[in-house]
Amino acid sequence: MSRQRSYSRSLLEELQKPPALPQPNAHLYKDMLIFEERLKQNVRRLKRKKRKYRFQLGGLLLVILYFTWMILFESERKPWTFLYKYGAIICIIIFYWTYRSRKYTQTTKYVPQCNRSLLAFNMRLRLDRDHPDGKLRFSERIPAVIDDGFQAFKALYFQRKRSMSLAAQKQPLPRPAST
Question: What Gene Ontology terms describe where this protein resides (cellular component) (predicted)?
């Protein structure tokens, strides 16, 4: 009986130990940077989709207002009145269906879903005024050394990338050989 207790105690102690963190190196930071950039790309893509859906919804709303105007104020006994009424009903159905569609709600739910997934890795994607596309943030459980190293690596990476693009712009284009 005492053997079983000692075994369960050591197992419990083993489970309570914090997990071993990988040693921070350039490869780890590069992978994290690629991951962050992919998340930012998804946020930008979904924002474009959301803007497009809002534009479509605005157009449908204008069509509905036009049909409503035609039904209420231009409602003489013309043959077009029948078409206006059914057109308005169809537009209302399409308006509601589009607004509640999965694609539109997907754009608003991406960041919370992403943060629920990143919670297991002690990270979250933060959108704010300074970073409208998002920024990968670490939990307090992650040592500050890793966070500081990642921020330094990211700054160095973008500085290198910027200097390479400036050098490519300054380099003259090769002239074709004249015959």
Answer: cytoplasm; Nem1-Spo7 phosphatase complex; nuclear membrane
107, 53 contact by CB (below 8 A): yes
Task: Give the three-state DSSP class for 20.
Answer: coil
Please state the pTM of the whole predicted model: 0.67
Burial 93-106 (b: 16+ CB within 10 A, else e): eebeeeeeeeebee
Rounded alpha-carbon distances, angstroms, from residue 102 to 54, 98, 106, 108, 116: 14, 9, 6, 10, 19
**CB burial string 6-22: b at 16+ within 10 A, e below:** eeeeeeeeeeeeeeeee
Q: Which of 44, 22, 21, 41 is nearest to 33 (CA)?
A: 41
φ, ψ of residue 161 in degrees (nearest 5): -65, -40
